[in-house]
Specification:
Chain lengths: ~150, ~525
Amino acid sequence: MTQPVTIIMIEDDEGHARLIERNIRRSGVNNEIVSFANGTDAMRHLFGADGSGLVQKGNALLILLDLNLPDMTGIDILKQIKENKYLKASPVVVLTTTDDTQEIKRCYELGCNVYVTKPVNYENFANAIRQLGLFFSVIQVPPAAT
Amino acid sequence: MNSAEPKTVVKAWAQRRRAFWQILLFSAGLLVLTVISAGSVYLVNKARDDSKWVIHTIEAENQINALLLEIRRAESAARAYLLTRGADFKADHDKAVAAIVPALDRLTHLIGDNPEQRKSIDKLSSAIETRLGQLAQEIDFIRQDQPEKATALVREFASTDATAAIAEIATGMLQEEERLFRLRTVNSDRSQTLAASMTGIGSGLVVLLAMISIWLVRRSARARDEAENRLRDAYANLETVVDERTADLREANDEIQRFAYIISHDLRSPLVNIMGFTSELEELGGDIFRRIGGLTHVPADGPPPASGEIVLEGADKQLSEDFSEALGFIKTSIAKMDRLISAILNLTREGRREFQPVKIDTSELIGAIVSTLAHQAAEAQAEIHVEPLPNLVSDRLALEQIFSNLIDNAIKYLKSGVPGEIRIRGRTKLGYAIFEISDNGRGIDPKDHQRIFDLFRRAGTQDKPGQGIGLAHVRALVRRLGGTMSVSSELNAGSTFTITLPIAWNVSNRNADR
């Protein structure tokens, strides 16, 4: 049974969030996008009040993650997602301004599925997001483990 | 530091004073020894002289006594002859008389130095002559067999008292010699005592000086030990201070690196928005102006024309152009800012990269750079000459960046219309390799020599693309490799960049500072 995939966007910059959302929509992806402007809210949503992640059981999620958040680093969120038995199967796309090779390597080591650098050039940015949208439209996302 | 200075001065003064005293003591000791030696020699000589004189006096006395003895012998032999007429006694008398003359001569010789005694000896010799003459007369009468005449003579001569005169003079002389003997003995004693006491006092003085010297030496040794301790402490302290400062510097450097990284990072984030929404605005603007065009051109009856075919006119066209121009400026500025931020990011990243020292064939490395730049060089009609270069141990990537930047610059900033000639030379000096990259290009005004190494700063005619990063980056790399770089150039007279790098750079040189 396929379930509609919810896109969780964790992005502190509202402008970025808006641009990302707009370009995803332009690529024809109409899945629900839930955005969070800080890590704490996102964590609460993902892991629930008890922090176990049980709330997301059975949901298909795709997580868009920025690394520079005001209250915590995206790396920490990524780590916790990949360590949680309910969430670890959900694909995580790291979408950030950092193109530091060390950081990219670290993210992949922690289990990030895609790493995208936000280019300043808007054409490239829009292209990247649209391609990501296309990618979203074909990707198979498993529901969170039961 | 300020409080320590007067103390140091005092210490230096004390040291000089100590040294002065030591030299003074040494000189004094030497002087005393010399005086003692000279004095001893003089006094010993004097004592010997005095002793000689004492012996001389005794000899003189002996001689007088011997003379008197010979006279008595002559007299007694003469008497015995008178009494016995024995030829033996006559011979005895003659022998004694014969001995008297040399004895008298010797005595004269001995006491010739004393005018007093000389007078006495003259008197004595005449008295002896008289007496000997008398004796000879007596003996003559005996030989002529006239004993009564001889006896009369004896009697007569006894009254003339020549014998008494002799005895008297001799006694006087002996007394005189006795006096001299006493005098000279006293002198001799005094000389010897003086010599002994001089030696004694001198030795004492030398011992005293030696003791003072030893004391001074020990004191200065103690002072030296103290100074050594202080020096050791200062060294230890210095090392700690250096370590602290190095740690501080390292921390500050890390802080700057982090700062630059974060800044460039966080600056990028709003830039994405500005660029993104500017593009959105551009699109929106396009839509708006299309709509305006559509509205103004809408034929009263027909359907609106297809988008893209609308041509704005008059004020609308002006508005659209102004709009596009404004957006265009915004976008180019953002692009430029992005390049600058990227440059800072790259620089900080470069600063964080760990260098790996490896053995590098410099000629090969530069050859590779030259071949990648061959196309640009050909376009600029430039020839690149690479002279033999010293090899070194350094970071390959850093060296590649350094040389390619410099050669690229040399090609980029040639004089237009003049065939370029770029020369790369190398030599070694005191553990350093010195590379020179010279060109016959447009050159750099001396007032800009410092400026060209600053980040985002450029000099001369701005007709080539660039961010003003290359040389700043090169200099940072050279510094991290433990080297220095400089430029010598005149406007329109070409430039020479000189790079000095350690031949054998190792990680501890610089990476340890990071």
